[in-house]
């Protein structure tokens, strides 16, 4: 249960890494069109990270992960491996998850992208997923238990006929991509108290159907067991002396 608090120097360096991750997500947005493959999207992100930002794509080689970003389409929950054989089609929703290492400091952010005209139910799922983070953030401040995050996300999601994925969680981040503490996105009673200098992600995965997930034979791609749509957004926050700062 040991986690690291960040000092001002750490925070400044984390912010540089965050700026790069955010820029890459913005840069890739103009390429998200019917017919492009997720493999090509990966390569564009890779080149932007390495050549333009002189940074490293943290997923590449992480526990043997083969690509530079994760791209999770439709019923893929997370960790989708970019693939030259998967061409985006009208109506697809996809999460692109960008994790950067710059000067030994990490950042991690993701959002949903839409291909052509998506269904109303897909758009609603994405909006509710994103809103659940902002709802929880209203309660985030120093000296409050970290379980407030999952408890409030669950309180919000309970208003809809959706489920929260339990097998994957948010995490501390800084000199490592994944640090303590774990951030659960569902009701829990973790007794870790938020303190100024904590930096962590909130990245709920919300499904239209059941919360059950399965890992594909590639060892990475996580899908919903019932093939229902899944959405995810990922933000990074810093606990400060008032409440929090949204880093990305
Ligand atoms: N971006 C993922 C996260 O949010 C981790 C990606 S590392 C990979 O924690 F190896 F799974 F790609
Ligand atoms: Co993350
Ligand atoms: Co991520």
Explain what this protein looks like in three dimensions:
The protein is an alpha+beta fold. 26% of the residues lie in helices and 25% in strands. It is built from four helices and 15 strands. Strands 1, 2, 4 and 5 form a four-stranded antiparallel sheet that branches. Helix 1 (8-28) crosses helix 2 (38-52) and helix 3 (120-137) runs antiparallel to helix 4 (147-157). The structure holds 2-amino-4-trifluoromethylsulfanyl-butyric acid and cobalt (II) ion (2 copies). The site of one cobalt (II) ion (CO) has 5 residues, from loops.
Roughly how many Å is the radius of gyration? 17 Å
Strand content: 25-35%
Report the order of strands and helices. Answer: HHEEEEEHHEEEEEEEEEE
The end-to-end distance, rounded to whole angstroms, is: 25 Å
In terms of topology, how is this protein built?
Layout: H1 8-28, H2 38-52, E1 56-57, E2 70-73, E3 76-78, E4 93-102, E5 105-114, H3 120-137, H4 147-157, E6 163-164, E7 170-172, E8 179-183, E9 199-202, E10 205-207, E11 213-215, E12 222-224, E13 230-232, E14 235-239, E15 244-246
Helix pairs in contact: 1-2, 3-4
The structure holds 2-amino-4-trifluoromethylsulfanyl-butyric acid and cobalt (II) ion (CO) (2 copies).
């Amino acid at each position: 249960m040991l986690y690291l608090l960040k000092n001002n120097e750490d925070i400044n360096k984390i912010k540089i890494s965050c700026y790069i991750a955010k820029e890459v997500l913005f840069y890739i947005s103009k390429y998200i069109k019917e017919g492009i493959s997720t493999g090509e999207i990966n390569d564009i992100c890779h080149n932007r990270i390495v050549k333009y930002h002189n940074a490293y794509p943290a997923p590449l080689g992480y526990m043997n992960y083969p690509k530079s970003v994760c791209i999770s389409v439709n019923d893929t929950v997370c960790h989708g491996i970019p693939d030259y054989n998967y061409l985006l089609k009208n109506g697809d929703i996809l999460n692109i998850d960008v994790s950067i290492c710059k000067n030994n400091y990490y950042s991690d952010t993701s959002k949903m992208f839409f291909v052509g005209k998506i269904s109303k139910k897909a758009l609603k799922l994405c909006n509710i997923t994103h809103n659940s983070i902002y709802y929880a953030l209203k309660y985030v401040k120093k000296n409050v238990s970290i379980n407030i995050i999952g408890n409030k996300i669950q309180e919000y999601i309970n208003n809809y006929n959706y489920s929260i994925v339990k097998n994957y969680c948010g995490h501390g981040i800084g000199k490592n991509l994944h640090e303590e503490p774990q951030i659960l996105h569902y009701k829990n009673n973790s007794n870790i108290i938020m303190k100024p200098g904590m930096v962590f992600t909130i990245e709920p995965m919300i499904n239209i159907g059941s919360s059950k997930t399965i890992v594909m034979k590639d060892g990475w791609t996580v899908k919903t067991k019932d093939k229902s749509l899944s959405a995810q957004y990922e933000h990074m926050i810093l606990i400060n002396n008032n409440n929090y700062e949204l880093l990305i």
